[in-house]
Amino acid sequence: MANTTDGLPYPVGTDPVRDGDNSIQALAEALGPRVVTVLAPDSVTAATPAQSLPQRVSIMRITAAAAGGWPGVIGSNTAQLVTFPDPSAGSGRFQILAVGGGTSRQSVYMRTGYQTTWSPWSGPAPFATAAGQLTAPAVAAGDSGTFVVTFPANRFTVPPVMAAIRGHTRLTFGGFPSTTTSVTITAANYTTSGAGTGTVQWQAVQMTDTSAVFAAFAARAAGALIPAVATCQTGDCENYGVPLDIDLGYTDEDGNVGQVDPAYVYCGPCGQPCDVELVTSGE
């Protein structure tokens, strides 16, 4: 008997014919761990002990996400469960992935299990992400400037959501990505001191293959925006008297929509309460 380059046994011409059953058994046992087991839909729930899962890679269709106890954002019908055993750690050690379907599409959650104990769910992992840093131009007091953030080629399929930050608070950044390739950021200096050149760090994220944010968050943008203007009234603050556009609306992780109490709007630089005025539809 000999083995293929990837370890599968097979009989050779000099093996006795009477040993054919042994050769077939050896091949079957070698193939066993390499077979992917297709589980019946919803036959595994989030509470299923790891030690009861097949000791090989398995996949399962999730059609009842809520009943199965999976993370709420994982949709039904098109979601998949994938389990990966870890033989080196002994029976019952698994990595398990829940790949979202429906509104969450490509969102991935992961957890680790050993026998009857599971770790908390991680995730969701974004569909695409990028981060980097660049040198922003100097901006004089009361002036503004721009810089361009270029995203990696073919990274995003829709304009991502993005955040940028610098090491000091003299500059206020503005600008949303409108393409999948780059974004021009305006850096405004509302203080009485100049801001020299410095490093800006940025991160851009696309949560699903069709949306920069989850559907529950995107839905609010269509009609639940609550625009307001916040103005700091602390005399020695660098933002004193500067009106800033804000949104008082929010959507939590469960998709519930609400409004932030204006009494809890604070200035970033000084941490003091701001005067807040709602923007009416006529403005």
Descriptive overview:
The protein is mostly beta strands and 283 residues long. It has four domains: 32 residues, no CATH class; 84 residues, no CATH class; 79 residues, Immunoglobulin-like (Sandwich); 70 residues, no CATH class. Helices cover 8% and strands 35% of the residues. The protein contains three helices and 19 strands. The strands form six sheets. A six-stranded mixed beta sheet has the order 3-4-5-6-7-8, with no helix packed on it. A hairpin with a 7-residue loop joins β12 and β13. It is elongated. The protein starts with a strand and ends in a 5-residue tail after the last strand.
Sheet/helix structural class: mainly beta
Radius of gyration: 28 Å
In total, the number of domains comes to 4
What's the tally of helices? Answer: 3
Q: State the total count of DSSP E strands.
A: 19
Mean pLDDT: 76
The percent of residues in helical segments reads under 10%
